[in-house]
Fold this protein.
Amino acid sequence: MVRKKSLKKAGKRVEAGQKSKDRKKILKLVDEAKGGYLGPEEVDNAVSELRRNPQSASLLREIALGRGNSLARKIRAADILKDLGTPLDEELQASLKAAFNLTEESHGFLKDPDEKLFLTISAQVSQLSSHLQSAFVQQLMEEAGEKSLLLLTRIAGTSEVMDLIIAESLAGLPIQGAVDLLYKMSAQTDYKTVRKTVKRSLYRLKEKGAVIKDWRFEDSQVSVFRPPARVSEGYLSAIDNLGARLVLLAQPGTTRGLYLFEVLTDDTEGMTEFQNTEITRKAYKEYLTLFKEESPLPIVEADPSYCRFLMEEGYALAIRKGHSMPVFSEWKNKMGKPHNETQTPLIYSYVRDDLIRADEYLLRRCGTLFELPEFSNWTIESREIEKYVEMIRDANESKLILTPVQKEERIFQIYNDAVEELFNREKRFIYGRRLEEMAYVIHKLGREEDAGLCLAASLALKDTTMPSYHHPFLLVLMERSVSFALRQEEKKEREDLSLIVRP
C-alpha cells in the first residue's frame, strides 16, 4: 500500500512538473506569436505548435482569464484561442479589450493629469471584474513604471479589492515611491486584509533592497509600545424570507470606546429599526459574541464601508416610503461615509461572475438551494400567492376525469403561469439582489460551492432573455410556497373542527 501511494504521489509530481513546463513553453509562444517579435510565417508556425500541444487550450484560457498576467498577454492568449478555433465568449473578449483601451487612457492622464479624465478612468476601473482590475494595474506598472504611481495613488482607497490588488502589485516595483504608497495605504485603510498584504509586499521590497524603516515591518522586536490602530468593524446577517437582515457597525469614538450601530432593514420598506450606543471595547467583544450566538440568522464579517452603504440605502428607502427615522439622522455623521455612493455586492470580490455564467450546471442545480438551512424558511408571502393557491386547490379537487399525466401537466402549467406573472422585472431585481447578498454570506461561512449556486441563480435573474418560468429557483420557490400555504389551510381547518362542541 505504501509503495502504491508513493508511486501515485510521484506520478502527480511528474504530471505537475510537465504541466509547469508546458505552461512556460506556452507563455513563451504566446509572447512571441502575438507580441510583434515574429513575422507572419513564424506566427503561423507558433500557432501550429500550440495546436499540437494538448495542454494549450486549457492553459491559454487560464492565461486569458486568471490572475498574474498583464492585459497584453491576456489579449494575445485570447487571440490565439480564436486562431485555434476555441474562442472566448464575445463578452469576455470585449471586456479584455476595453480594459486594454483603459490603459491607453491612463497613459494620457499620466502625461497630462486632468481631474475629469481621472474620474472617467476611476469609474471604468470600478466596473471591471477583479481579475481585469489586477491585469490593468500590472499592465500600467509594466509600461509606466514609477509614473504609474500618480494614478495608483488616486485610485487607492476606492475599494478593498482594489487596495489588495495595488498592495500586491507594488511588491514588483522596488522603488521608494512604492514603499511610500504602501505606508500611506496601511495608515488609511480600515481593512485587516489590506494591512496584511501591505506588510507582505513591504517585506518583499525589503528583500529586493528597498529601505523599510517603519517599526511595524521590521523583523527585530521593538521595546516601545505602540497602540494598535483603531479600525471600524462591520457584520451582516443572512436574509430572511421577507428580505430583512441585520447590519452592525462598530466605529471608533472620540475616546477609547466605540460607537455601536445596529440596523434592521429590508429591501421593500428600507430601515425599520435603528439602535445606537457608546460602548467600551471589552463590552463590545462580549456583546458581539452574544449577538452571534443568539441571532436566528448566520452572522458574518463584512467590509465596514459596505455596511455603511447598506445603512444609508435602507434609510433612503425608508424615507421614500414615508417612514421617519429621526434618530438615524442625528447619528449618521458619526458613522462615517461609505467609500462610494454606489458599491458592488461583496461576493464579486471573491467569485468571478464570468466563470459562474459559463457553468450552466450551476443554474440547473440552483433549485436545490432550499435544502440549505439558510433558505429553509424562504417562501413567498401568502397574500401574494392567494390566487395561485386557490387554482392549485381547485386542480387537485377537480371532478374532471383526467389521467395522472394530464393532471400533473395542468398543475405544472399553473405553476409556470404563476411564476411568469408574479416575477416581473422589479420582483426579479429584488430576488436577484437577495441572492447576491446570500452568496456572500454563504461564501464567508466557507461553503464556496453553495455560494456559486446562489450567484448563478442571481445572475440568471438579471438575464432579461430568460423567462421567469424557466428559472429553476423561482419554480421551486413557487411550488414550496403554495404547498406551505395549502398545509397551513389544512392545519387551520383541523383546528377549527377540534373547537366545535358536539351536542
In short: The chain has 21 helices and five strands. The CA atoms of residues 98 and 364 lie 31 Å apart. The longest helix spans residues 2-33.
